Each structure stands twice: as structure tokens, then as C-alpha cells.
């Protein structure tokens, strides 16, 4: 694999994962990628060696992973196709918000530039996917989208305060059960929520919200996967 060549689906998925973790402020290490993809550590190590050799990533002496500029461009190209596909599946084909991530994961690797342009035109230049995440190339700076919107994790909002949901973490969109639960409870982009109570700091502790006049209980760990603005 050399920089500039067509990328395999597996390479694109690794670049997507590294990009998504990075833009949300997470430290990216091999163990996190192994957990995400459900593969053994040696499998991840071998892929990371290939990505370093091809110029898509760099690793420091602590084995922390960062994308190079070329890696960022490659990741944003596939993310653009992914998020456009999600929007197309919802708006044109009528699939539900929580159903489209896996379908988009399968389709994103096979969309040509010509089809991508047609989808953009059909959707009239959409700025975000159905989960609220920015579509690279259609917003000024997708990498800084959270910072530019002064977004914070819902789990950091104090009791009694309100916030507006900006987006659902791309890192966890493949957690289908969680996405379905958020959809059922109305925890979707643009929704206003109020924090009623936060019982503790552990990820499994309850985090109770008022959503459209209804009380909704999620875990604090799940609340950390929802980005909001004040």
C-alpha cells in the first residue's frame, strides 16, 4: 500500500476511527482500536505499521497515534461519503435515524466521485449527517466543528441546567442498541434537554434528563457520548 493508491475498506475504517477519536479529544492508541474493531493487538500493530509506512499516521514514543495531513484528507474523504450516505438513506429512502450507520459503513467504500456529487446536489448541500456530525468539505472546518460550536459532553452539564444537543459521538454510532435507545427517547440533534439529576461520576451511574416534558434516564457514560451546546 502506497500513499496515493486506492485504499482498502479496512484501511479507510482505521483512518475513520483514528480521525473520529482525535477530533473528540481522545488519545488514540492501539488498544482502543483493537477494542473498537474486535481484533487482536498484533492485527492492529501490523496495520499501524502499514499506515506509518504509507505516510497516513505518525506515532510518538508513547505509541500515541496521530494522522498526518495526508491521513486527515483520506479520512475526511471517506467520512464525507459515509455521512452523505446516511443523510441520503434517511431523507430519500426513508430509513430511520438509528438504522443508517451500518448501511453507510457498507456503502461508503464504493461510492464514486460522480455519485458523490449527485448525492450532494440531490440533498442540496447538507452540512451534517442525521446524527448531527459535520460533513467534511461541506462545512468550513470539520475538524474543529466541536470547538467552533463550543460543544461539551452532556455528562459535564450541571444539575438544573439546560443544553441543546449538537451531535451524537461518531465513535459510538456503531453501538446500535444505544443509538436506538437515544432515538426512542428523543435524544436527537437540536433537542433541548434539562439535567434533572446526576447521581455520581462513574460511567454506569444514572443521569436523569427532562426531554420534551418527559423524564429520561441514561447512564453517565452514555451522556458523555452526546455533544451539546449551552
UniProtKB/TrEMBL annotation:
PROSITE patterns tied to this protein: HTH_DTXR
GO BP annotations, alphabetical order: negative regulation of DNA-templated transcription
Pfam families documented for this protein: Fe_dep_repr_C, Fe_dep_repress, FeoA
Any one GO cellular component localisation term in the record: cytoplasm
Domain of life: Bacteria
Subcellular location: Cytoplasm
InterPro entries cross-referenced by the UniProt entry: DtxR_MntR_Metal-Reg, Fe-transptr_FeoA-like, Fe_dep_repressor, Fe_dep_repressor_sf, FeoA_core_dom, HTH_DTXR, Iron_dep_repressor, Transcriptional_repressor_C
Keyword annotations: DNA-binding, Iron, Transcription, Transcription regulation
Domain HTH dtxR-type: 7-68
GO molecular function: DNA binding; DNA-binding transcription factor activity; protein dimerization activity; transition metal ion binding
Cited Gene3D superfamilies: 2.30.30.90, Iron dependent repressor, metal binding and dimerisation domain, Winged helix-like DNA-binding domain superfamily/Winged helix DNA-binding domain
Record's keyword annotation contains Cytoplasm: no
Family stated for the protein in its record: Belongs to the DtxR/MntR family.
Subunit details: Homodimer.
Protein name per UniProt: DtxR family iron (Metal) dependent repressor
Organism: Thermosporothrix hazakensis
